[in-house]
Amino acid sequence: MTSQTRPEEKAGENTSRLHICFICPYIYGYLKPGSQKTVGGAERQQHLLATRFRKEGHHISFITFETEDDEYERIDGFNVWKTLPTTNDLTRTPEALIKLLRSVHRIDADVFYVRGNPPLCILSSYCCKMLGENLVYCVANDSNVELNNLARHHGVFRRTLPKLAYVDAIRRSDYVISQTDYQQRILNDVLGIRSTVVANAYTVPPRNKLLEMDERSHVLWVGSLDSEQKKPDRLIRLAEQLPHIEFVIVGWSQNKSYREKIRYEAEALSNVRFEGFVPPDNIDRYYRRAVAFVNTSEYEGFPNTFLEAWRYGVPVVSLNHTIDGVVSEQNVGLHSKTMDRMANHISMLWKNTDEASEMGRNGRQYLQENYSLDIVFERYACIFNNVVE
């Protein structure tokens, strides 16, 4: 612990403001861009929300993965506690529980918030229950509510007991947030758990930051290089079918063999540029120059990449996911359903820049009207205040 004033001593100075703690293992990559290569949409959303709450005068803390440095760090007005061991290793569960319990007790926030990460949901639920703290849990992916798919990301859920513990942890949360109507239905109809739908959010850049469609240079794919969910190999197959179109792949994986496989296959094609990991603060330039954004995922939650594309007037071409039908019903992109149709959709947008421009404009407008940070912040502020009251 540094010699700075303990953050929990400041929390009560202004009782009209909340102290919110985000329990977020991978947030450090957003707090210090470029410091980590494991950053994703869940972390982006929590950083956006935390930044907005801090702007409004609320007190913000983070609990993130432990490091060899000091356990506490002050970054951009946030209190960052680097005290969390891995939560996916059963052998380290007792250690993780004890350290998280100590951190929750020490921080003593008005609200603790966990997004996705079912093992962390279980540990946080136990800690908050034992200490009488408020916990808000937000579903981050469809696999978080589809019990037969839980093991896709967390092998421990191949067993029945951890699944039951996870469902019980969600039920013990003081408030549950789902991102889509589909997730809400599963929670309610299958698990008997009530939730409130709150979409993801994003800021919108000024219009003068956008390029005209005929100034753009590529079709873009962004995501984790995940063979089970994101399926970047499908993008490689599309590039093989469409040699006249330039593709860019931005993504990273801790799985070195799979990462190198995708890189090798991409670099073998003259029309594919493999960028690998790109820090969050540098990603906008790839969207800005994109004619279309491609999503090849087998399943999703609420893809931040869709919002990132619409910010810059980029239409979305999605194989499977539509955000409860938004992609197909609002003329903001195309729902392909099959790989052959996806190839046709990409080719059509590449040739027909007027159509691509119209869909991109619609996407940007829909984002402003439904997913702006102002709108989502107000919903979260209401939820957090209701939980505390």
TrEMBL record:
The keyword Magnesium does not apply. Keywords: Glycosyltransferase, Transferase. Gene3D superfamilies: Glycogen Phosphorylase B (3.40.50.2000). Residues 39-200 form the Glycosyltransferase subfamily 4-like N-terminal domain. GO terms for molecular function: glycosyltransferase activity. Pfam families: Glyco_transf_4, Glycos_transf_1. Residues 208-365 form the Glycosyl transferase family domain. This is Glycosyltransferase family 4 protein. It comes from Natronocalculus amylovorans. The lineage of its organism: Archaea, Methanobacteriati, Methanobacteriota, Stenosarchaea group, Halobacteria.
